[in-house]
């Protein structure tokens, strides 16, 4: 098996670090939520908005960012995103009240939207075939580990410093990646630079309206004018956004969904990542507020998943490159569904070793089987010239899934994240995972091998060569 070239290794390092800060900041907040709401106030609503304000801008602008990445060049877009993300992180850490924190988190998400599609697009632009699958396996291992190790790092900062330092964790990787970007020399030829800015605004406002209604309706009720106006208005804007995509040069090329693996892979992504977001949020908060663990202990709870991801995800990526992604994308979510059901063992007499650890181990195995093959199947099915927007669509689907499930948290857990709510969330997680596995089995197919140009074993000399 061919090893990576120096250029490919540099691209992987840049892509990993760029996505690392985005995914880390999306999950590091989970164990900081109880401390954050204690200091700033607002209870579960502040906790939901601390997560969803980030996800709203990240998920709604990621399509626009993918289009901008293809139009103006991935390296330039990534550099701008890194600098903006660092500035927004400082603003979050200094927030004096919930409103400023929520606004700063939204700006952070907007900057993060510039990073994820451009990072994966770099990999798909430089590598194809089995090498690409291996590279995506490495990217997946470390970026998913960032999501999983985030609660541990966040817990350490909360317990020994302050929740505010949680949002400064990414300063170092941002600085390192800016240095690596300066060394990366790619001949990127920008495409036609017309970008659908209005479409991006419609998507952002539509998602914002729907999410506001979902989060606030338990407090104001569906009959509230504010809920009706924002919810219905947001849904209408999303419909207008989709209708607009039938024009030439759309922000969301609907033609991508005519590619089988892309369409079915994104359908599976919707359910799998909704389950991942729900599970991560609930475990991070319940283990502190319900089971009485410290923030660091709650963060350590998911460490087995991180270890297994680092060990197994690159191997799953290589195996998917050889045998096709279908079996991995079907089996992985089913294994994670079983892991979620194991969390029903959690009782008032809490015991991490017997009630949570088995679920974390099984969950880590299932996640390792799933993520790299899923990403490789989706992005490997799309031509390199549209890799930026393809990556953006897939990441937008994943973030929207998390956004909506967190917005519906109060409905899922019955208004309070007590033991009964924790069990309800585990059941919903298992159901979402199972649906993702079934969709993968039904829809995903093994990609056709890339043709290899045959060489003439005995070429005829060209007289012009002398």
TrEMBL record:
<feature type="transmembrane region" description="Helical">
    <location>
        <begin position="352"/>
        <end position="380"/>
    </location>
</feature>
<feature type="transmembrane region" description="Helical">
    <location>
        <begin position="135"/>
        <end position="157"/>
    </location>
</feature>
<feature type="transmembrane region" description="Helical">
    <location>
        <begin position="76"/>
        <end position="96"/>
    </location>
</feature>
<feature type="transmembrane region" description="Helical">
    <location>
        <begin position="221"/>
        <end position="243"/>
    </location>
</feature>
<feature type="transmembrane region" description="Helical">
    <location>
        <begin position="102"/>
        <end position="123"/>
    </location>
</feature>
<feature type="transmembrane region" description="Helical">
    <location>
        <begin position="298"/>
        <end position="315"/>
    </location>
</feature>
<feature type="transmembrane region" description="Helical">
    <location>
        <begin position="327"/>
        <end position="346"/>
    </location>
</feature>
<feature type="transmembrane region" description="Helical">
    <location>
        <begin position="12"/>
        <end position="37"/>
    </location>
</feature>
<feature type="domain" description="Major facilitator superfamily (MFS) profile">
    <location>
        <begin position="11"/>
        <end position="448"/>
    </location>
</feature>
<protein>
    <submittedName>
        <fullName>MFS transporter</fullName>
    </submittedName>
</protein>
<feature type="transmembrane region" description="Helical">
    <location>
        <begin position="264"/>
        <end position="286"/>
    </location>
</feature>
<dbReference type="InterPro" id="IPR036259">
    <property type="entry name" value="MFS_trans_sf"/>
</dbReference>
<dbReference type="InterPro" id="IPR011701">
    <property type="entry name" value="MFS"/>
</dbReference>
<feature type="transmembrane region" description="Helical">
    <location>
        <begin position="425"/>
        <end position="444"/>
    </location>
</feature>
<keyword id="KW-1133">Transmembrane helix</keyword>
<keyword id="KW-0812">Transmembrane</keyword>
<dbReference type="InterPro" id="IPR020846">
    <property type="entry name" value="MFS_dom"/>
</dbReference>
<feature type="transmembrane region" description="Helical">
    <location>
        <begin position="392"/>
        <end position="413"/>
    </location>
</feature>
<feature type="transmembrane region" description="Helical">
    <location>
        <begin position="49"/>
        <end position="69"/>
    </location>
</feature>
<keyword id="KW-0472">Membrane</keyword>
<feature type="transmembrane region" description="Helical">
    <location>
        <begin position="163"/>
        <end position="183"/>
    </location>
</feature>
<dbReference type="Pfam" id="PF07690">
    <property type="entry name" value="MFS_1"/>
</dbReference>
<feature type="transmembrane region" description="Helical">
    <location>
        <begin position="195"/>
        <end position="215"/>
    </location>
</feature>
């Amino acid at each position: 098996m061919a090893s990576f070239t120096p250029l490919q290794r540099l691209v992987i390092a840049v892509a990993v670090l760029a996505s690392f800060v985005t995914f880390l900041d999306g999950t590091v907040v989970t164990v900081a939520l109880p401390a954050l709401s204690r200091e700033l106030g607002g209870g579960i609503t502040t906790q939901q908005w601390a997560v969803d304000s980030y996800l709203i801008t990240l998920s709604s602008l990621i399509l626009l960012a993918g289009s901008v990445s293809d139009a103006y060049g991935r390296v330039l877009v990534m550099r701008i995103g890194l600098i903006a993300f660092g500035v927004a992180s400082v603003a979050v850490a200094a927030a004096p009240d919930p409103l400023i924190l929520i606004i700063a988190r939204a700006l952070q998400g907007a900057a993060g939207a510039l990073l994820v599609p451009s990072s994966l697009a770099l990999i798909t632009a430089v590598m194809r075939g089995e090498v690409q699958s291996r590279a995506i396996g490495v990217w997946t291992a470390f970026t998913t580990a960032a999501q999983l190790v985030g609660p541990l790092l966040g817990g350490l900062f909360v317990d020994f410093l302050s929740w505010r330092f949680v949002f400064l964790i990414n300063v170092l990787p941002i600085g390192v990646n800016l240095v690596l970007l300066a060394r990366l020399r790619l001949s990127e030829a920008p495409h036609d630079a017309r970008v659908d800015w209005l479409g991006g605004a419609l998507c952002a406002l539509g998602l914002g309206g729907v999410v506001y209604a979902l989060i606030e309706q338990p407090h104001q009720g569906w009959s509230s004018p504010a809920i009706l106006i924002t919810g219905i208005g947001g849904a209408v804007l999303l419909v207008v956004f989709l209708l607009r995509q039938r024009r030439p040069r759309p922000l969301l090329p609907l033609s991508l969904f005519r590619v089988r693996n892309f369409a079915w892979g994104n359908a599976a992504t919707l359910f799998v990542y909704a389950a991942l977001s729900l599970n991560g949020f609930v475990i991070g908060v319940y283990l502190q507020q319900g089971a009485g663990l410290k923030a660091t202990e709650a963060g350590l709870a998911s460490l087995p998943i991180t270890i297994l991801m680092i060990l197994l995800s690159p191997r799953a990526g290589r195996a998917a490159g050889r045998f096709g992604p279908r079996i991995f994308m079907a089996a992985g979510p089913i294994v994670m569904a079983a892991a979620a059901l194991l969390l029903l063992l959690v009782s008032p007499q809490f015991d991490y070793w017997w009630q949570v650890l088995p679920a974390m181990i099984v969950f880590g195995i299932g996640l390792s089987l799933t993520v790299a093959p899923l990403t490789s199947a989706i992005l490997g099915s799309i031509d390199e010239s549209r890799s930026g927007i393809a990556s953006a669509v897939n990441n937008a689907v994943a973030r929207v899934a998390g956004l909506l499930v967190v917005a519906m948290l109060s409905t899922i857990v019955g208004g309070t994240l007590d033991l009964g709510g924790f069990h309800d969330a585990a059941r919903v997680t298992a159901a979402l995972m199972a649906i993702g596995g079934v969709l993968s089995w039904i829809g995903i197919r093994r990609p056709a091998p890339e043709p290899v140009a045959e060489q003439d074993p005995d070429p005829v000399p060209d007289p012009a060569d002398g």
